[in-house]
Amino acid sequence: MLIANRSPPKSPAVSITAPARSTQVRIAFNAALVREASLQDVPYMAIDFDEKRQRVTFISTPSREYQGVVAFPLMPDGGPSSSKTDSKALYGPKTLLSMLYLQAPRHYDPKIRPGRVGPEISIDLESAPASYSDSEHVFRAYRDLDLHPVIAEAANKLYLDGHYANAIEAAIKALCDRVRAHSGKELDGADLMKTVFSPKNPILRFNDFRDRSDRDEQEGFMMMFAGAVTGLRNPRAHKIVKDDPEDALEAIAQVSYLAKRLDRRAKKA
Hints:
By secondary structure, the chain is of the alpha+beta class. The chain folds into 2 domains: 14-131, no CATH class; 145-268. The protein has helices spanning 31-37, 98-101, 130-144, 149-160, 164-183, 189-196, 212-238, 245-265, and strands at 14-17, 24-29, 44-50, 55-61, 65-66, 69-70, 72-73, 75-76, 88-93, 106-108, 111-114, 119-124, 204-205, 267-268. Strand 11 (111-114) and strand 12 form a beta hairpin. Helix 5 runs parallel beside helix 6 (189-196) and helix 5 (164-183) packs across helix 7 (212-238). The protein starts with 13 loop residues before the first strand and ends with a strand.
């Protein structure tokens, strides 16, 4: 009796690809890994980077956030509506996943261990390229910022997807909305800021207006709010501006500071 040759069963594997024309990194778990780690019903994966050990760990989680870190949907490898494959994949921005992007394309032998809410899958990378360190530090610094929640909601996804100019513009639009909500004025741009924070007749003030120093502070904040609009938002609204991640981080942090100052100190005159 002849026995047909069969291919040896595949070993569990993680593959990383990052097409040049895409802004996304694709992280695929092959069918053998899905079976061995029981990933069939895992909804999301958070990603933990251990630079010292050059290790990346994918952590099963039931929600879109894990200990303050954004988690990514784990879907069929062919896309969310695909039923053609038993493999699973998740996709994330190259800017956020640069530790993986800079080593793609590559296949890795994973280590599987139980986690608190599901399996954790780790892969060991090669030493990071020298160019990796600076950019990753910037992204980590951004994720560690304690941004005003309204500014974070407006800017975070854009920033982490690499749309830095759009993130700055969105943050300042959110700041303008916040000023309108506090003041009741339906103006926009520098006119809004100069009307609301005018040191001569303020609608919102940052102090008790007891002396010249208080008036100087009021005028200074008026200039800062107006400058955020004219210097940061307007150029990005009217032409294409290419921002790098560090410039965008500093700009968004400044806008967040103004929003926090507005909420904490500004009061109706």
